[in-house]
Description:
Elements: E1 7-15, E2 25-31, E3 34-41, E4 47-53, E5 64-67, E6 88-97
Antiparallel strand pairs: 1-4, 1-6, 2-3, 2-5
Amino acid sequence: LDKAADLTLVIRAAPFVITGTKDSQRLTIKLNGKEIQSLTLDKGTARDLVILLPSNYLKRENVLLLDLPDADSPANLGLSTDHRLLGIAVQWIELNDKS
């Protein structure tokens, strides 16, 4: 970033949830090591997650971390032979100037 200003991060995502088996996914968003927001996603449909990225946490180069502690594999849940850890399916990410 050339200058620090509040930004809005929008993520269109759907959590990996299975009613009665995996009812929700927790998501913690960190910017440069600082927790910005924590969410619990419990609907299997995609939705827009809107997160404020405050200017005092931003640097010229930034690291955005999506922590999904409830990610699980369909194989572990007895649904299939797929061993990939699934948390959320991100369809797109957009970064906007808040002004």
